[in-house]
Amino acid sequence: GLEKATFTGRLNVLTQGDAGKGNAVLNIGPGSLSMDNSAMPLHLSGEAKQNDLILYARLPAMLTGSLYDPQLTFEPGALLRSRGRIIDSLDIDEIRWPLAGVKLTQKGVDGRLQAILRAHENEMGDFELHLDGQANDFLPDNGLWQWRYWGKGNFTPMNARWDVRGTGEWRDNVIELTDLSTGFDKLQYGTMLVSKPRLVLDHPVRWSRDPDNPTFSGALALNAGQTSFSGGSGLP
């Protein structure tokens, strides 16, 4: 019967996009499927191309649990990567989603969720952003996903470097930024030089996505150092 059967297989998928052809391979098993406790190794690898974006996948995983309530766990080395262009002027040098240890069930996503983005725009500059968080039975508007984020970049038009950091969470239908700090080392434009402008949270930004009573609240504060001009004048 099903309990004693061993399953194995291979599925090859060819894709076609503006960036060219892609190929993905799903290896299944050898393993077992059970009404009580399955044990089925899976491995998805390859690439897909959509418009000017290319997505690369290397996703070893294990399917366990009953067929009524299965659980998919990504194993060490599981990684999604992408590069290309999403809009005319923004080039994605690389975005990475490490997925090792992440679990998928009928309740949602459970485990550590991370992302690393490196991108550039020819006239505005380049930047790097990191997201690292923990999900607990998370689906959009259900469950909990807490995260922290940080990053840095260059703002070419004003000859400045910037950084950002903060924390937040998505709990059921409420998205909240609990901490935010972002700013520049300076802003220089023509004869004007602004020293260390920085935007911070005065009160958490809170967006309730209740379909019957949506709300949005929060407060930001801008702090800046001295503003000076090349002629010698300045603002405090």
Automatic annotation (TrEMBL):
Cite the Pfam families for this sequence. YdbH-like
| Database matches in InterPro entries | YdbH
Q: Which domain of life is it from?
A: Bacteria
Q: What is the protein name for this chain?
A: Dicarboxylate transport domain-containing protein
